[in-house]
Amino acid sequence: MSELKAEISKRRTFGIISHPDAGKTTLTEKLLLYGGAIQEAGAVKSNKIKKGATSDFMEIERQRGISVATSVMGFEYKGRKINILDTPGHQDFAEDTYRTLTAVDSVIVVIDVAKGVEAQTEKLVEVCRMRDTPIIIFINKLDREGKDAYDLLDEVEEKLGLTVCPLSWPIGMGARFKGVYNLWEKNIQLYTEQKKQRISESINIEDISTPEIEKYIDKETADTLREEIELVSGVYPPFDKEAYLKGQLCPVFFGSALNNFGVRELLNCFVEIAPIPQPKMADDVLINPLQDDFTGFVFKIHANMDPKHRDRIAFLKIVSGVFRRNTNYHHVRLGKNLKFSSPTAFMASKKSVVEEAFPGDIVGLHDTGNFRIGDTLTEGSKLSFKGIPSFSPEHFRFINNADPLKSKQLHKGVDQLMDEGVAQLFTLESNNRQIIGTVGALQYEVIQYRLEHEYGAKCTYENYPAYKACWIESFDDDQLDEFKKLKYRYLARDKFNRLVFLADSSFSLNMAKEKFPKIKFYLKSEF
Ligand code: G4P
Fold it and tell me: Which 8-state DSSP code applies to residue 55?
C-alpha cells in the first residue's frame, strides 16, 4: 500500500453536534481521555455561552478566545488518527457550524434522553442529510430519568427523518439504570454510579438467553431485557455498514458521558465503521483523496485575539495528496502562489508545526489577509471546491461610518470580518449603501467592538426592514429584466457580486415567486 493510501485509511475526521447542554463538551472530553490526548476531565473548555456570567457579548469574545484551541482536536486510538472538529453551541453561530460540517466525513449527534430531539439538533441534522453525511447517535444522560427508549427513537425517526438501528440498548434508566446491552459487541456493560473517571468493565454475553445474566441483574430486569432485545431486532433493521456510509441508516448508542459510560463502546464502533476521508466535488470533478496532487479548502478563519496583531489562522482541510511545509501552492481565487513556513497541526489542545499533512487532516495556516472562507489551494490546477453554504440572514442593518477620517479602516475591517464569515455584506443596487446581515443580533455588537478595537474604525447601525435575502437566478432574461425593474429598490449584490433580492415580507416573497415563475429564489447559496 502506498504511504498516502495508508495514511488516508488511518484517518477519521468528524464533528459532534447537539443542542446546547446535551453533553457535547463532556463527550468530547471523554473521547480525548480514551485517546490519551488529555489526562483529566475538565481540560476541554466548553465553548458555550454561559448565561448570566457576564454580558452575552463579552461571552462571545471569551468564546472566541478559547475556540481556537478547541477548533480541531486530534488524537490517536487503536492505530487510527482521529480529528474532532468543534462546532459552536450557540445558535447565533449556526453558520460556523454549517461550514465546519463541510469539512467532516461523519458526525456524532448527542441527544439528551430527557429532552429528546431539540430545535438546534433538527437544523444541524438537516444540513448533514443534505449531503448524506453518515451519522451515529449517542443518547446521553441515561443516569437521569428520561423518555422511554422506543418513544425516543420514534421521535428521532420522525423529527430528524432518519432510520435508526440501535447498537446498544439501555437496561433501566435514571435511579434504576443498570447498564446497557451492547448489540454491536454482544456484551453487557454494567453501570455503577461513579463520576468522571471510571471506565467500567464489560461482561461478555454471547447469548442473551443465558441464565448467567441473572448473576448481574435481577431476573425481572433480565427478562425485560430479553423481551426488549427481541423486539428491537424485530422493529429495527439490522446494522448495514453500506447504508450507514450512505447516510441512510443511523446506529444509536445509549450512555452517560458524564459517568464515562457507553463512551468506549461508541468509540470502538466508530473507529470500525466511520468513513475514511471522502472524495469531494470541485467544479464538476470529483477529487479523490488518493490523487497525488495536493488540494484543500479553507472552511474557517480565526482572527487573533490580540488587537495589535491582526493576523489570522485559516483552517485548511486537506482533500487530496500531501500538503508540505515551505512548498509553493496555488491560491486559486487570487491566482497567486503562496507558501507556508509554519503550518500547524492540532493534537488535543496543543498546536505544533507540521512538515506534512494528509487528506482528512486540518492544518492551521498563518494568514495576513489572503484567505476567505471557501478558498481553494492546489498544486497548480485551477479548480475550486464547492459546497460551503451560506444561508439567508435573519437580521439586517445598514452600516454607517461614524468617523469620516477612518473610512479606509472601516472598509478594510468590514471586508476582513466578512471574509472570516462573521456576517454577510450586501450592497444595495440603487444607492450602494451597505447592509450587514446576521444570524443573531449579538453579532452586531461583536462587529462594532472588533471594528473599533482591531481596526480603529467606528460604525453605527440603522435598521433595514428585510425579511430574508434570496439569491436569484433565471434562464429567462426578459423575466429577469422585468423583475429587476420592478424590484430595483430591493436588489443588492453579495460579496461575490451575486444578485440578491431582499424581500421585505414573506408575503412579498411569495408574490414575487408567483409573478415570476421563471426566476428561482434561493434562501441558501453555495460558494
Ligand atoms: P454541551 O457541550 O452540549 O452544551 O453540554 P455539556 O457537555 O457542557 O453538558 C451540559 C451539562 O450536562 C453539564 O452540566 C454536564 O455536566 C451535564 N452532563 C453531561 N453528560 C451528562 C450525563 O451523562 N449525565 C448527567 N446527569 N449530566 C450530564 P452543567 O451543570 O451545566 O455544567 P457543569 O457545571 O457540570 O460543567
Answer: -
